[in-house]
TrEMBL record:
EC number: 2.1.2.11
GO biological process terms on file: methylation; pantothenate biosynthetic process
Keywords: Cytoplasm, Magnesium, Metal-binding, Methyltransferase, Pantothenate biosynthesis, Transferase
Pathway linked to the protein: Cofactor biosynthesis; (R)-pantothenate biosynthesis; (R)-pantoate from 3-methyl-2-oxobutanoate: step 1/2
Cofactor requirement: Mg(2+)
HAMAP family, per the entry: PanB
Residues annotated as the enzyme's active site: 193 (proton acceptor)
Name of the featured protein: 3-methyl-2-oxobutanoate hydroxymethyltransferase
Gene (name only): panB
Binding residues for Mg(2+): 55, 94, 125
Length: 276
């Protein structure tokens, strides 16, 4: 275990079954990205439920304009670093662009990110037939999967930018049906990004698995943000759905604790962080 965490107060480990229990009991799930051991320790000590090694690291750590250049080797490197900073926080890692091109590649990613680096769950964007196959192949081999729908950043070229999805009736139906499909394929969790709040609420109510929103309104079972956005240090324009929790506070740990408290109370996201 990472030494700075050695004196952290004990809490029960967050697990896939405990996330399902949180949805059943109406307790909000708090998720935040981390890319290294020091931030992972901050996330752990603030009592965040899930740490996400997001492929957003391609943008906020590496300085690229999209998440597409991130490699599986890089995700393994960051996941192993984050794992050393955690003890009870559930560790989810993104499968990078096209590492899920078929079930065999997805299993290779699973072997490396779970077996080698220490992730507990893989997050995969989309619901096309080959992605549903990959979700099925992984979950059949007891690697839990978090699906990711709506504004899936790896689809940036198809969408023509980081654009809110599911605004028109047909597009909303498509995202809704994809959510049912990834659940049927075996996903244990869904990240729903950049969709109108009403669609976020409808999908959250329809699914048995917990739905974590980012720009998907306040009715989701939990929320996730990119940690540099909620610390106000992202260069340039932050997404509208994010909020600077360090503003007016004294430390990173206070900011993360405030984020966790606001997600749990329902104070975040407010109307200004949601789309209609
Ligand atoms: N710093 C950072 N934060 C993120 O949330 C994030 C990343 N990077 N990188 C990977 C993806 C890209 N994401 C993004 C990036 C930009 C917008 C954005 O600017 N959206 C517009 C909405 C445009 C519309 O209305 O269609 C916005 O105003 O928020 C959204 C998601 C989410 N992820
Ligand atoms: C924004 C979250 C959901 C993500 O996928 C990432 O950080 O890469
Ligand atoms: Mg991602």
């Amino acid at each position: 275990m990472y030494v700075e965490n050695a004196s952290a107060p004990a809490r029960k480990p967050v697990t896939v079954p405990s996330l399902h229990a949180m949805k059943a009991e109406g307790r909000k799930i708090v998720m935040l990205t981390a890319y290294d051991a020091s931030f992972a320790t901050q996330v752990e000590q603030a009592g965040v439920d899930i740490a996400l090694v997001g492929d957003s690291l391609g943008m906020v750590v590496q300085g690229h304009r999209s998440t597409l250049p991130v490699t599986l080797d890089q995700m393994v490197y960051h996941t192993a670093a984050v794992a050393r900073g955690l003890s009870t926080t559930l560790l989810v890692t993104d499968v990078p662009f096209l590492a899920d091109r078929d079930a065999a590649y997805a299993l290779e990613a699973g072997a490396r990110l779970v077996g080698e680096a220490g992730a507990a769950m893989l997050k995969i964007e989309g619901a096309s037939p080959h992605i549903l196959e990959a979700i099925h192949a992984l979950t059949e081999r007891v690697i839990p999967v978090c699906a990711h729908l709506g504004l899936t950043p790896q689809s940036v070229h198809k969408f023509g930018g980081f654009k809110i999805q599911g605004r028109e009736h047909d597009a909303a139906e498509r995202v809704y049906n994809e959510a049912l499909a990834v659940q049927d394929a075996g996903a244990d969790l869904l990240v729903l990004e950049g969709v109108p709040a009403a669609l976020g609420e409808r999908i959250t109510k329809a699914l048995k698995i917990p739905v974590i929103g980012i720009g998907a309104g306040p009715q989701c079972d939990g929320q996730v943000l990119v940690i540099y956005d909620m610390l106000g240090i992202t260069p340039g324009k932050r997404p509208k759905f994010s909020k600077d929790f360090l503003a007016g506070r004294q430390s990173v740990s206070e900011a993360i604790a405030a984020y966790a408290a606001d997600v749990r109370s329902g104070a975040f996201p407010a109307a200004e962080h949601s789309f209609n």
